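Predict structure. Chain length: 280.
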Amino acid sequence: MTRAADLHLHTRHSDGTFTPAEVVRRAGEAGLSCIALTDHDTVAGLPTMTELCQAAGIEFIPGIELTAHVGEREVHVLGYLVCYTEPEFVTQIEHFKEARAQRVAEMVTKLQTAGVDLQASDVTSVADRDSALGRLHVARALMNRGFVRHMDEAFHRFIGKGKPAFVPKTRLDVAAAAALIHKFCGVAILAHPGISGLENQLDGLLAAGLDGLEVWHSRHTAAQCERFLAFAQARSCLVTGGSDCHGLAKDEVLIGSVRLDYSHVERLKEFHAWTLSKGS
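Prediction complete.
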């Protein structure tokens, strides 16, 4: 059987609905031999995932998904194999989590001003204690309280860009995100370029310090995957892929829907080892 990986997964430690144990169980059922946890702006789930994957016989790649910006556009940068236990890195990530919590608090205040009686406790109740809070948590809370019928309605009416309770994220540019990942020995990959609206800026993003791009993603079309693969091959940069599964947060369980050939995992690890040797 061909070995396959899913290098883009989320848990309740950010805006997914599955626990780490549920992710590992479903990965095993999907026949995946390697997975990565890439929660938004947090590494809280990585120690548990390491233990669970070891017990399940699934190779684990520690990761994170950082939020960055190019102008007014939000861009996500995946960091793989980062030394996530380094105190300085942990401190920086905690700052990101605090900024997320402040953003959610401001959204709740704006919702209340707009006549929606949502409380901060409604939002935190749908997240784990150490979760990196985000708009999906607010949307879930709005749905649970009956203010909206489904998650999409929360974005369309209240918390989407340009809506009454929208609050922009703290700005981090792509070069800074890549530099942070590299500082702590990680590999920086542009997440889902096909849904970022920046396809014509890929060369500039690579020049900002990224090591490659996520070619295969659950929301990429076959044509996009072919185009991104050709782009990456022409520039000899890394390619990765993953489902971007958020559990049931986005209505569909996606684990295993994107099956990255294991040869790309091997290249990722080889590149990581090369960067470590170069820096020693």
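Summary: The CA atoms of residues 206 and 212 lie 7 Å apart.
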